[in-house]
Amino acid sequence: MKEFLNSFNILTKDEIAHLIALSTPKLMHKGDFFIREGEICEEVAFVVNGTLRSFILAENGEEMTYCITFPNNLMTAYSSFITGQPTEENIQAVSTVELLIMSKNTINDLANTHVNWLKFLKVVAEQQYIELEKRIFQLQKNNAVKRYSELLKHQPEYVKHIPLNYLASYLNVTQRHLSRIRKEINF
User: Fold this and answer.
1) Is 165 helix (H, G, I), strand (E, B) or coil?
2) Whole-prediction pTM value?
3) Exposure letters 51-86 (e unless 16+ CB within 10 A, then b)
4) Which of 56, 84, 117, 159 is placed for a possible disulfide with 110 were both Cys, Cβ 3.0 to 4.6 Å?
5) Which helix (H) or strand (E) is 80 found in, with range?
6) Measured between alpha carbons, how far is 180 from 163 in angstroms, rounded to an integer?
7) Model confidence over 58-70: pLDDT tens digits?
8) In the structure, what pLDDT confidence band is assigned to residue 52 with cuts at 50, 70 and 90?
9) CA 90, CA 37: separation in Å to the nearest integer?
10) Nearest-5° angle of CA 36, CA 41, CA 45?
């Protein structure tokens, strides 16, 4: 987490050390939920190790994976975290996951103590928006082969461990189509 926070070039070493000291380690096992639909999110997690997926339930009850979070990233049910309203999403461990948890109160207290935290939170919010925009453009612009190839290029060691049904949902294809794509790319 220290390297991740340093990469923003905003926070001092002391500010980073202080946040790490205020963070709580949490271990999740495959299938455990970080948050479920209807709950209010009061935490942000830094993913140290493992993979999480964020999904919503369609009207027909089908799970639709819209986000996969890999190590060295922050993760939360962001809308709920900001608004204090119940979330519509579920965040679940795809594998064993090691997290560092920061409470909303801790983050708010830090933001109230130093302008660097406000700058950091602004940049994180901007990055979240950019990632969301990229995801929308990717789904609308690129075909399934291109979407899968990009994911494989950026996260090859983790893609292999994501169940096919989650990966297919994330890529917005059927499992059968994803199997054909994987054969085509020589996975």
Assistant:
1) helix
2) 0.86
3) bbbbbeeeeeeeeebebbbbbeebbbbbebbeeeee
4) 117
5) helix 78-83
6) 15
7) 999 899 998 999 9
8) very high
9) 5
10) 95
